[in-house]
UniProtKB/TrEMBL annotation:
UniProt-listed Gene3D superfamilies: Aldehyde Dehydrogenase, Chain A, domain 1, Aldehyde Dehydrogenase, Chain A, domain 2
Coiled-coil intervals: none
Keywords: Oxidoreductase
Active site location: 253
Aldehyde dehydrogenase domain residues: 18-478
Organism this protein belongs to: Jatrophihabitans lederbergiae
Similarity comment: family membership: Belongs to the aldehyde dehydrogenase family.
Domain of life (superkingdom): Bacteria
Protein name: Aldehyde dehydrogenase
Stored InterPro entries: Ald_DH/histidinol_DH (IPR016161), Ald_DH_C (IPR016163), Ald_DH_CS_CYS (IPR016160), Ald_DH_CS_GLU (IPR029510), Ald_DH_N (IPR016162), Aldehyde_DH_dom (IPR015590)
Family matches, as Pfam families: Aldedh (PF00171)
Length: 482
């Protein structure tokens, strides 16, 4: 990846310099070195992007397209992404420190999001409604909303952005994206690829910059017809109330503190691998991280032994290297936040069984050791708050009732894992857990076909699957006197 490059915004099919002339540094978290500079967007830049998106929405080159042709364009974008998958994987690894191995897998899967919604584009339709008076014909039209604003975090920039872009465009909207200030590069490249795929200029726009400046300006723009946000619960609450005050819809994918539950009848090898992957993949920087591990008392010691042995053997280092198993946190403040939580855990009385130290891995970057905390209880802040790092809190439980009570005693409700060989128990637990996604004998499975929704403080609205189309369309009822 070329270093010290300057990136502008991407508006109406062109790279546009920031109106303020200001840029900010984006760092490589594995080394702490400056990678590139991104444009510091402000309200003027956002207004320009929303205007371009509005014009593109009205333009016959987009609005006049048949739904079938719109689907073909999405498919073409999927094909172009597939051609550039390796390039995109490298950009994100440099930008947020995720393992190149993992990014290659994510980028290989990314076109599927476009293909899935390409297939749905010509299946969006209204209904004919039986009217009480036979002289009246009543039917519905499912229409696009207009300009959608998408605000995304740094942990999986392209996958999370595409989860919004694909259904938004499928339904005929245009989009303005504000990526995280820590990871602007891959989303800018995606917008360029949309032009290469044949999407009209202005359909996909990107304004980079800070949340309180560019993000807030996007949320406040009066021409926005919907906001789709993925990020922290705190920011999500502000965005939801701003959207509600203007009566526009918001889809919110927020934080988590997910339970990963191991019953004594589970295959302990698979369960321990699932626990390790659930919390240490992407250095714990996933919304669905299984950060609360509940283990049934009969197998507590054995499971803990397996998990700690594996945690000790995890190879920390350069995310570009094939042998590396744990990369850096995405930026210094995130590393410090994780370190602060582990210190807090110690003060609260937790035992740090493994890990518990920051390191630069000899590279100068922002790494933190895989960490296992025991002697923790549900009232401690390390158990209640999202750490977003490689820190697991492990707790014993007695039986199903006990663990359902403990697992559901949280403000979040994003995901949950259950490890058991008892089929009836698997179904019972799936029904009783207060989480939008429940995995049994697996963890982290995801697909554009499968709807996901955060319960409680983990979100509102559905992403992926067919249902999300409702959130990107509006319904019009037409009455005709025949
Ligand atoms: P964040 O809330 O700090 O930032 C997310 C985005 O919002 C960034 O682009 C940021 O610039 C922007 N933003 C910040 N303040 C804003 C404001 N006042 N107005 C408008 N935009 C603003 O979150 P983060 O630290 O980037 O991401 C980590 C969080 O994201 C974690 O809580 C994680 O659980 C969550 N997340 C959730 C999912 C999910 O699908 N539920 C997926 C990934 C990450």
């Amino acid at each position: 990846m070329p270093e010290n490059q300057r990136h502008g915004h991407f508006i109406a099919g062109e790279t546009v310099q920031p109106s303020s002339g200001e840029y900010f540094d984006s760092l490589n978290p594995a080394t702490g070195e400056v990678l590139y500079q991104a444009a510091r967007g402000n309200a003027e830049d956002v207004a320009r992007a929303v205007h371009a998106a509005r014009r593109a929405f009205e333009d016959t080159r987009w609005r006049g397209l048949s739904q079938t042709r719109r689907g073909r364009l999405l498919r073409a974008l999927g094909d172009v992404i597939a051609e550039h998958a390796d390039e995109l994987a490298h950009i994100e690894t440099y930008d947020n420190g995720k393992l190149l191995r993992e990014m290659r897998g994510q980028m290989a899967a990314l076109p599927e999001y476009l293909y899935y919604y390409a297939g749905l584009a010509d299946k969006i339709q209204g209904d004919v409604i039986p009217a009480s008076d036979r002289r009246l014909l009543n039917y519905t039209l499912r229409e696009p909303l207009g300009v959608v604003g998408a605000i995304t975090p740094w942990n999986s920039p392209l996958t999370l952005t595409t989860s919004k872009l694909a259904p938004a465009l499928c339904a005929g909207n245009t989009i303005v994206i504000k990526p995280s200030e820590y990871t602007s590069a891959s989303v800018l490249r995606l917008a360029e690829l949309a032009i290469e795929a044949g999407l009209p200029p202005g359909v996909v726009n990107v304004v980079t910059g800070f949340g309180a400046e560019a993000g807030q300006a996007l949320v406040d723009h009066p021409d926005l017809t919907k906001i789709s946000f993925t990020g922290s619960t705190q920011t999500g609450a502000r965005i939801a109330s701003a959207a509600a005050s203007r009566f526009i819809g918001s889809t919110l994918e927020l934080g988590g503190k997910s339970p990963n539950i191991v019953f004594a009848d589970a295959d302990l090898h698979n369960a321990s691998m699932g626990v390790v992957a659930g919390i240490f993949a992407a250095a714990g920087q996933t919304c669905i991280a299984g950060s609360r591990v509940f283990v049934q008392k009969g197998v507590y010691d054995e499971l803990l032994e397996r998990v700690t042995a594996r945690a000790r053997s995890i190879r920390i280092g350069d995310p570009l290297a094939d042998a590396t198993e744990l990369g850096p946190l995405a930026f210094a403040a995130q590393r410090d936040k994780v370190a602060g939580y582990v210190d807090l855990g110690r003060e609260e009385g937790a035992t740090v069984l493994v890990g518990g130290r920051a390191t630069d891995a000899g590279l100068g970057g922002y790494f933190y050791e895989p960490t296992v905390l025991t002697d923790v209880t549900n009232d401690m802040r390390v158990v209640r708050e999202e750490i977003f790092g490689p820190v697991a809190a492990v707790m014993p439980f007695d039986d199903e009732d006990d663990v359902v009570r403990l697992a559901n005693d949280t403000d979040f409700g994003l995901a949950a894992g259950v490890w058991t060989s008892n089929l009836a128990r698997a179904h019972r637990m799936a029904a009783r857990l207060d989480a939008g996604t429940v995995w049994v004998n697996t963890y982290r499975a995801m697909s554009p076909m499968s709807p996901r929704q955060g319960f409680k403080n983990s979100g509102a609205g559905v992403e992926h699957g067919t249902e999300t189309i409702r959130d990107y369309t509006r319904l019009k009822s037409v009455w005709i006197n025949t």
